Amino acid sequence: MQDPQVNIGAREKAVERPLSSIGVLMAGAIDYAGLFPPSAVSMTDAVANYAAYRRGEYSWMLGRFVVTASRLNEFAAEASKVQKKGEKPWRLAVVAGEDVELSTYSVVEFNAVERGKFIADVMEIKAPQREDIDFAHRLVPKEITAYYEIPLDQRLPELVATLALRDQRAKIRTGGITPEAFPKAHEIVRFVRACTAANLPFKATAGLHHPIRCQRPLTYEPNAVKGKMHGFLNLFLMAAFVRDSRHIDLLDELMMTEDPSEFRFDQTGVRWRNDYVLTLFQLEQARYRGIQSFGSCSFIEPIADLKDLGIL
């Protein structure tokens, strides 16, 4: 299913991000992963979508284009057709394959060939064991930021510590196309708390199409299975509250919140249930030191939902 280019790409000149809490919280937050399920659009459509989003009204929310290492050449061929002369280089987040050494070589070669047009400055690497982190860390050049997707089981503390000691970053998978692919709220909270304690920036991917936790179809197929999907606002605000130890007991509850009316965004910050406040400074710190972005196969859905909620 192609992410429709309705409104988002309608304006050639992008407007400034809002001078408000949502502007701080969502700046560059959505990495476009249209090539991946459940959208899984063609490279041609994904590149055309990304080009439109870069030039559209909500470009301030757009992060990197997500692509697998094996499709970098295909990406370059398609993107070169739509990239405008003089446009700033497109930034890519490259998902490594099972052969991390080959993926790293592909990224290095791509950056050398496409310099000035595209830059793959992020790699995402699966790392179920400490040895996987050590191996990749020796391979990936320092100018490329690596995010390591780590499991949420008993290995989490050791892997977070390993990443922190090597000045790397973490990645959490927050969903998928089946109900079983979605981690429990307390598992996500545990991951965020561990990363925050280790001063470890992190990103999320999958299952975060909607701002607030909700029951939705997990794919775009007719009669698709429904399941609880975590909200990206729940996650980002929880990550900000983690840094304020006064509210540790409420983190699971925040992740489980499904009522949009409990959240209020304004020019000074965000309120949850009126009693719990995050200032603009706290939001900035959460983004700078903690949650960096989330991968979504749709850029339209998050924006449409935020507009429906009156937040944009």
The total of beta strands comes to 13
CATH architecture, please? Alpha-Beta Barrel
Structural class: alpha/beta
How are the strands ordered across the major sheet?
1-2-3-4-5-6-7-13
What is the count of DSSP helices, taking H or I runs of 4+ residues? Answer: 11
Distance between the termini: 25 Å
Oligomer status: single chain
What is the CATH domain class? Alpha Beta
Chain-averaged pLDDT: 92
- What are the secondary-structure elements, in order, as H or E? HEHEHEHEHEHEHEEEHHEEEHEH
User: How is the biggest beta sheet arranged?
Assistant: 8 strands, parallel, barrel
| Low-pLDDT runs | 4-15
Summarize the structure.
This protein has 312 residues and is of the alpha/beta class. It has helices at residues 21-26, 43-54, 72-82, 100-113, 130-139, 156-165, 185-197, 232-242, 251-256, 280-289, 300-308, and strands at 30-32, 62-68, 90-95, 118-126, 145-149, 169-173, 202-205, 214-217, 226-229, 263-265, 269-272, 276-279, 291-296. It has a single domain (21-308), classed as TIM Barrel.
3D structure, described in words:
- With 312 residues, this protein is of the alpha/beta class.
- It has a single domain (21-308), classed as TIM Barrel (Alpha-Beta Barrel), CATH 3.20.20.
- The chain contains 11 helices and 13 strands.
- The strands form 3 sheets. Strands 1-2-3-4-5-6-7-13 form an 8-stranded parallel β-barrel, surrounded by 8 helices. The chain has a 3-stranded antiparallel sheet with strand order 10-11-12. A two-stranded antiparallel sheet has the order 8-9.
- The radius of gyration is 19 Å and the shape is globular.
- The two termini are 25 Å apart.
- The relative contact order is 0.15.
- The model is unreliable at 4-15 (pLDDT under 50).
